[in-house]
Amino acid sequence: MSVGVEDLERAVKNADHKYDIELIKKAYTFAKESHNGQLRLSGEPYFTHPINVALILIDLGMDTDSIVAGLLHDVVEDTEVSKEDIVSTFGEDVGLLVDGVTKLGQVPLYSREEQQAENIRKMLLAMSKDIRVIIIKLADRLHNMRTAESWPEQKIRDKSLETMEIYAPLAHRLGIRAVKEELEDIALRYLDPIAYNEITQVVKKRELNDANYIEYIKEKIYFRIKELGLNFKIDGRIKSHYGIYRKVYMNGKDWEEVFDIYAIRIIVDSIIECYNILGAMHDLFTPIPNRFKDYISMPKPNMYQSLHTTVIGSEGIPFEIQIRTWDMHYTAEYGIAAHWKYKEGVKGKDSLEERLAWIRRIIEAQQESESAEDLMQSIKTDIGSEEVFVFTPNGDVKTLPLGSTVIDFAYAIHSEVGNRMIGAKIDGRIAPIETKIETGQVIEIIRTKSENHGPSRHWIKAVKTSEARNKIRSWFKKEKRDENIQEGLAEIEREFSRNNIKLSEDEMKEFIEKIVKRHHFNSVDDFYAAIGYGGITLSKIMPGIKDDYSKLFKNNTTLQKEPKNEKKIVPSCGIVVEGIDQCLVKFAKCCNPLPGDSIIGFITRGRGVSVHKSSCNNVIIAKNDTENLDRLIAVRWENSSTKNYRSSIDIITNNRPGIIADITVALSVLKVPIHEFNARILKNGNGIITTSIEIASVEQLQNTMHKLTKIEGIISVDRSGMSKKI
Ligand code: MN
Questions:
Q1: What digits encode the pLDDT tens for the residues 245-282?
Q2: Which of 290, 408, 488, 653 is positioned for an S-S bond with 531, CB 3.0–4.6 A?
């Protein structure tokens, strides 16, 4: 479908917003000329993309600068035009927006762990500077996903995962419902086409069967509210595919249990009318117990407000009713974008500042943390309604993820409250601080006045939120260096003996020093201390340590416990070293290059060529070091990547909500492509997931399975057909 300037003009004319159409047309012409001759993968002229992005932004009600930046967003990246050109033609504001979007485009959000954390941090920082950058980026991603069909398979999968894990949650957190739902539905269609089709079928069938019924219900509601003499609007809709997917496939509900395929929405003028209508609806239909939710008095963290109730009509078909005011409606539909769409902003709970505060909190919480998982968790915990609402004794509401403990609550109030906590009361009764909190509880933290009091180490394992975990760690990091060193040393000793690493005192000293260097610590004590306060997780670096151990001390066979029957796979590593036929090649642990990365070899002393990413810090250091410069050697990936094969594994889980997301994230972090993913519920209430993954070697498969078993809620992981009888 081709789009042009007329579409922009029409959209601008139909918008409730005043736009500077001349400036928009100027940007149109500028971008069109700059992209002249470029094509998209689909074969369409490239310029159709920025126009569509601009149209989405107009739809969201964004301001003129955002529309202009939307038209220009790929110009700096893909054409000869520079940021300065944009600034001189369209002004500083547009220049900054385009620059922000360009920079965001250059950070792959779904890369290897460490880098991913850094990249997401960069994105959050860009957002906190000007939130419009991320809204333009969301529009960009939305149009790209709409037209993803022509991409190569791998790219579709990567982008879909990234969309599901990062962009959709961001859209959700910013409250932009339409964008969030469309992103999720498109990504789902690519990630789980089988489930997606099943949902489509069921929805279609129900729509056909129940069309008259829904009309009938709407009419019934209409006349009832009319009697009350109120101004109102009523509409009905079918919930998003992904919303249904979460219920059926992730939470294991039966299709019959999925009540809220339909939602009837009633919009009125005032809050008091919302409650009036709720009463009328409960009178008109039979409410289903425990399905009523009051998000008006307790808004969701993304500021969503509405009353939700599920009722059954005369035909016995349940449906959800959502009741809200117009202000709440704008916030629910447009979220942060409502700030631009409705000049005055939206009254009540919504303010740009409050939304930005969330981003700043994540950035702050993350400054102490070194782990990408924590960061992903911070973003992911915001998805959905998996949260509890509890109160301070003063009646302030705190929202925390489901499964949070009193300790999380204390740290959510303030670090000092957490650090000085010696006990707690829940609803007036003394309770253990590890207690999981529940919605509606009033929680009082008992504190000591002593300034020296601090948290206990085991709290780190008891807490749910990364905010609490980071604050506890940072206390230990600051206050307890000696203790941390002791703790770290003890942990090393435990892990070493568990892994049968036995060395003489001298050897041990040498070995530890090697490890310390590899992980870039200044001293052995720093290294122990970091393990002690949890800055590095020993279990994560153990595989590397074990590797080194067997390499360095392999002659000492008596100390080694090589598992029998496990044939070592000869690493046919897929690397070609220029000018050398056969040579020992290994992948550098510092940057872990993966097929497709730009790489370079480094000739080690006596241990062959180690392959680094070209961008690896160690390479850059070597390049600046005349002594090492000539040890760099060109290497490239072997072309045939046919070595991978598919393997099917069965994962038994306790069916914890969100576990599927965690599994797919883990696989994606491990760079293991997923070909099939099926989940179902077993009679005993556990879940079984059978997934077909692409694997390069048995070692990789074992490693992958091992990593999966570490996910909370996973009971077992086996090759398909090998799992024990369940
Ligand atoms: Mn783009």
A1: 877 776 666 766 665 677 899 999 999 999 999 999 98
A2: 488
